[in-house]
Amino acid sequence: MSIASDLLRGNTDTIILASLAEHDSYGYLINKEIMAKTEAQIELKDATLYSAFRRLEKEGLVTTYWGDEEVGARRRYYSITEKGREAYGQNKAEWQKAKQMIDSLLV
Amino acid sequence: MSIASDLLRGNTDTIILASLAEHDSYGYLINKEIMAKTEAQIELKDATLYSAFRRLEKEGLVTTYWGDEEVGARRRYYSITEKGREAYGQNKAEWQKAKQMIDSLLV
DNA sequence: AAAAGATACCTTGACAGGCGAGGTATCTTG
DNA sequence: CAAGATACCTCGCCTGTCAAGGTATCTTTT
Fold first, then answer.
1. pLDDT of residue B1
2. Domains in chain B, number
3. Domain encompassing residue A85
4. Per-residue pLDDT reduced to its tens digit, B13-41
5. Domain contains A51
């Protein structure tokens, strides 16, 4: 059974930023990489993914540009900004704290 | 700064069950105990708490009864059911897995 | 050559959980 | 007597997820 989306909520943006912190990427690939790394136990549905992109863009955490592939489907690439890296760091820290706090309650 | 509610989401029911697994309790006290244990970094807003109770009751994970205090405000107590204990165990297991998976993505 | 499947993008509308704001009633303390 | 703590509750908004639908291109199979 895969991870309930309510347990992921609050981490999707961070997960996307984590992916982009390594290299520019595009929606489809980000999803594939996440599924590969988690043995398909975490999957961002594409509607979720794209609404996250809109959010991140709006907040200035990522920028976007179209790829120049000559063949195949067009790709919209995303790039993490400096502000995005900062947010990523903060999100990770908050996640660490949240983990700890929740664990302290679940005996 | 306290923990963002989106990071808690998916764990509120589990947190309440954890509290009830130790002893019968009531809304106000559960909240106080959570705040004490987490130095007020986790707080369930009472609207959140009561909607969670409704949910848990509906699913048969808790039962409820009115306290018989002679003085003071009336208290509605909650008691975890056998089914509730099972759900609690499963939720904890899923949380462990989710933690691990998310950590594997946040480098 | 047509069909099927992978790659790759996108929008709409419904749904669920969290919570701000509002309410009620009792008791204790200054 | 007012203020604050205790203790319960509901309504309606907001936000993130996602099922369902769509478009377009390329590759593989039939």
1. 62
2. 1
3. 7-105
4. 999 999 999 999 999 999 999 999 999 99
5. yes
How much is the pTM?
0.93
Partner-chain contact A38 B104, CB within 8 Å = yes
Contact A98 B21 (CB under 8 A): no
What does chain B look like in DSSP terms, one character per residue?
A: -PPPHHHHTTTHHHHHHHHHHHS-EEHHHHHHHHHHHTTTSS---HHHHHHHHHHHHHTTSEEEEE---SSSS--EEEEE-HHHHHHHHHHHHHHHHHHHHHHHH--
The CATH number of whichever domain residue B40 belongs to comes to 1.10.10.10
Cross-chain CB nearest to B18 (options A14, A101, A105):
A105
A17 CB contact with strand D at below 7 Å: no
Asked whether the predicted pLDDT for residue B73 surpasses 90, the reply is no
- How far away is chain A from the Cα of B38, in angstroms, using its nearest Cα? 6
The arithmetic mean of pLDDT across residues A98-106, rounded, is 96
Whether A98 is covered by a domain: the verdict is yes
